[in-house]
Amino acid sequence: MTEPFIKPRTGRAPHQPTPASTPEPANGGPEAGRMLVEARAAGRTYGSGEATVTALASATCRVAKGDRIALLGPSGSGKSTLLHLMGGLDAPTNGEITWPALGAWETLRPRQVAIVFQMPSLLAPLTVVENVEIPLLLGRVPAEAARHAALEALARLELTRIADKLPEELSGGQAQRVAVARALAYRPALILADEPTGQLDRATAQHLFDVLLDTLAGTDTALVVATHDLAAAERMDRVWRMRHGILEGEV
Ligand SMILES: Nc1ncnc2c1ncn2[C@@H]1O[C@H](COP(=O)(O)OP(=O)(O)OP(=O)(O)O)[C@@H](O)[C@H]1O
Ligand SMILES: [Mg+2]
């Protein structure tokens, strides 16, 4: 199989952490250096007093390099909240989240963590291929190589023929698949995908998971995917279940 990802022009961007500044997991041991995300009693509440909403109760979990994790749970159970905390988009209101093998949260994007949002997330003035190559360009990949990787990722998802369209010309499902192509085009250490098949028919959803898992097979890139698709969840190594803001099945 051809190498699906390309490497940035320089080995290390100026803002990337130096090894010396990359903290080791507190517990050390053989897993040290493989731990991408560590949540310790991390929670997120909104509002205060009687109006307090607990979106995520104290969650303790870890994501290591190469993990394939499905996050299951009914609507409103806290899946997006947990993914956003793990991606450093939001901060916990109690407990803490650290990225032992990645460094401080400022360094997470665009190079290390790719997030496939539940909501539409394509930039309206840019074409599909431009949307896919944006993280590569921000990551200092030369323009030609970025375009090549973007087109390759689109081809994997059978989206070549819409490469020059604008987001407003896409169906909801096409836009979702473009967002997945954007995450795959670069080699992030961690992909957090929030219901990436929510708007897809069964066959297309299965194809998307085929592409995701095939592309990541044998790589260290970890995948955490929130989904209601039980068949897809069974293809992952681990399943986390959420209910009323409580993460079950992970200690
Ligand atoms: N900005 C916010 N302000 C107040 N409450 C919020 C906010 N964001 C989320 N919540 C609440 O937190 C809870 C968890 O929401 P979250 O979006 O994490 O659920 P989810 O499991 O992703 O649901 P879905 O499957 O519908 O996407 C819900 O009760 C939601 O109403
Ligand atoms: Mg959600």
Write a structural description.
- With 251 residues, this protein is an alpha/beta fold.
- It has a single domain, classed as P-loop containing nucleotide triphosphate hydrolases (Rossmann fold, 3-Layer(aba) Sandwich).
- Helices cover 27% and strands 23% of the residues.
- It has six helices and nine strands.
- The strands form two sheets. The chain has a six-stranded mixed beta sheet with strand order 5-6-7-3-8-9, sandwiched between helices.
- Strand 1 and strand 2 form a beta hairpin.
- The chain starts with 34 loop residues before the first strand and ends with a strand.
- Residues 79-80, 118, 194 line the site of magnesium ion.
Helix content: 25-40%
Give the ligands present.
adenosine-5'-triphosphate, magnesium ion
Tally the beta strands.
9
The average pLDDT score comes to 87
CATH architectural type: 3-Layer(aba) Sandwich
Number of domains: 1
* Overall 3D shape: globular
Helix and strand sequence: EEEHEEHHHEHEHEE
Strand order of the largest sheet: 5-6-7-3-8-9
CATH class: Alpha Beta
Radius of gyration: 18 Å
Beta-strand portion reads: 15-25%
Which ranges are low-confidence, i.e. pLDDT below 50, for 5 or more consecutive residues?
1-27
CATH topology: Rossmann fold
Q: What name goes with the CATH superfamily? A: P-loop containing nucleotide triphosphate hydrolases
Number of helical segments? 6
Briefly note the structural class of the backbone: alpha/beta
Quick structural overview:
With 251 residues, the chain is an alpha/beta fold. It has helices at residues 79-86, 128-138, 143-156, 172-185, 202-216, 230-234, and strands at 35-46, 53-64, 68-72, 94-98, 113-116, 190-194, 222-226, 238-243, 246-248. Adenosine-5'-triphosphate (ATP) is lined by residues 46, 53, 55, 73, 75-81, 118.
